Amino acid sequence: MPGAAPIAAARPSDDGPLGILCGSGVTPAAVADVVVKNGRPVMLFPFKGFADPSEVARFPHEWIALGQFGRFKRLAQQRGCRDFIWVGGLVRPRISQLRFDLGTVLMLPDLIKAFRGGDNHMLTTLGAFFERHGFRILAVREVAPQMLAPDGVMTARAPSDEDRADIEKGLDLIATISRFDVGQGAIVARNHVLAIEGIEGTDGMLRHAAALRDAGRIRSGDKTGVLVKMPKRGQDLRFDLPTIGPDTVAGVAAAGFGGIAVAAGQTIVVDIGRVIAEADRAGLFVVGVKAREPGTAGS
Based on the domain organization, do 130 and 94 belong to the same domain? Predict the structure, then answer.
C-alpha cells in the first residue's frame, strides 16, 4: 500500500471477552474476527431484527431485543463482559417500538433524552448510560486498529490533482454540515457536489447516483468523481464510524466514479485486501486522507 502508515495491533486483554453489540451488515463479524486474531475472545450481543443470523452463528452470542437492557445486563455479567464496542447499522426505532423490560424502565429518562437529537447524540447518551452501569464502551481503534483505513494511497491507481481537489471539497462539505448531525459521505465530481449521504446510507446513495447517470443527469465522464467518507465533526468515535468494503467498491464502479477517499484512522475498511484487489481490478483508487475541520480545505 504505497504511502500507507502501519497501524499497531491491539494487545490481548485480561478483562474477559470483548462484548460486541451487533447491528446490521457484515462489519460486526468482521471486527470480531480481527479481535479474536488479536488474542481476545468475543461475545456477541446481536440485536433482533437487525443482525445477520448467519454471521452471528460463527461466534458465542446472546440475542437481545432493543429495549431489553435488564436482560442484556444480566447476560453480560454472566458472560464476564465488561468492555464493549458497538458496531453495525441500526435504524432508529420509535420509543413505542422498544420492548421494555424491568431494567429498561430505569433508563427511560435517558432514552427520552437520547431520542431528542441526531444519531451521534443518541448513541453518546446511551453510551454514557452503559458506563454508569459499570460497562466500558471502547472504540474500534482500541481493539482492532488494523481495520481502520491507513494514511495514503492503497491502490495501484492514485488520485489525480483534479481528484484531490474533489476530495478536499468533499471533506470540507462533510465537516461543514456536521453541526446538523447528518451524513458521513458525499460524492464530488469536477468541483460539483453530486450527492450527500442521508438516511439511505452509502450504498443507497451510490445506487441513486448510478440511476442518475443512466438517466443522463450525471455527465462528468467515466472514472471521474470521488466518494468521500469521514466522521462528522465532533462525532464520538466509539460509535457509527464510516465504513467501506467490497460492496462500496462495486457501487462506486457501477456509478462510474473514479475512486474513494476516507478519513485515515477513522474509517473501518472491511476486508481491506479484497477492497484493494477489487478496486485495482476496476481501475479505481482508494486513499486514506486526514479529516478536515470546516473551512480548512487544502491546509
Answer: yes
Q: What is the pLDDT of residues 37-84, one digit of tens each?
A: 999 999 999 998 889 999 999 999 999 987 788 899 999 999 999 999
Rounded mean pLDDT, 164-173: 96
Number of Cβ within a 10 Å radius of residue 131 = 12
The 3-state DSSP class for residue 207 equals helix
**Kind plus residue range of the DSSP H or E element containing 229:** strand 226-229
pTM (predicted TM-score): 0.85
Question: Where are the alpha helices (H) located in the chain, listed in sequence order?
Answer: 27-37, 53-56, 69-78, 102-105, 108-114, 119-132, 140-143, 161-177, 201-214, 246-254, 272-282
Instruction: Specify whether 206 is located in the same domain as 134.
Output: no
299/296 Cα distance (integer angstroms)? 6
pLDDT digits (tens, 9 = 90+) for 12-32: 445 799 999 999 999 999 999
Last residue of a domain, one of 93, 108, 143: 143
What's the domain count of the chain?
2
Q: What are phi and psi of 192, to 5 degrees?
A: -115, 125
- Name the 3-class secondary structure at 20: strand
